[in-house]
Amino acid sequence: MAEFGPYVFKDAPVLDGSGLDKVGDSKKVTFPVSYRYNGLTEYGGKLYTGFDVPEPIVPDGCELRNMGILLQLNAHPPYATELLVRVKEKK
After folding, report:
1. How many angstroms separate the CA atoms of 35 and 9, rounded?
2. What is the pTM of this model?
3. What is the pLDDT of residue 45?
């Protein structure tokens, strides 16, 4: 079995729900994602086999909806772009 070297660990991204006041309001958000490279990548002057990023923290009453596109894997760290949508009234 192949061994994989060190990963770059990132904190969970916290998504900003400001401006999403009514049910159905949405906005495009971008956040880092986990990815394992088929080889090595350089980050901060060191070599790594990938990035380890926890799931994003979504504001209460909101959810992420996949747009089916916009995954940027050659970025450091890789990132996704999705819609953050208000699905419940603000408390």
Report:
1. 11
2. 0.81
3. 86
Q: Are 65 and 82 in contact (CB under 8 A)?
A: yes
Task: Using alpha carbons, select from 70, 86, 60 the residue that is nearest to residue 33.
Answer: 70
Spatial distance between the Cα atoms of 72 and 26, rounded to a whole number of angstroms: 21
DSSP state of 68: S
Distances (CA, A) of 39 to 13, 34, 50: 25, 15, 9
* CA separation for the pair 39, 70 (Å, rounded): 23
Which range, 2-16, 23-37, 41-55, is most confident? 23-37
Distance in Å from the first CA to the final CA of the chain: 51
- 71 pLDDT band, cuts 50/70/90, is confident
| 38 contacts 16 by C-beta, under 8 angstroms | no
Residue 25: partners with Cβ closer than 8 Å, 6 or more residues away: 19, 85, 86
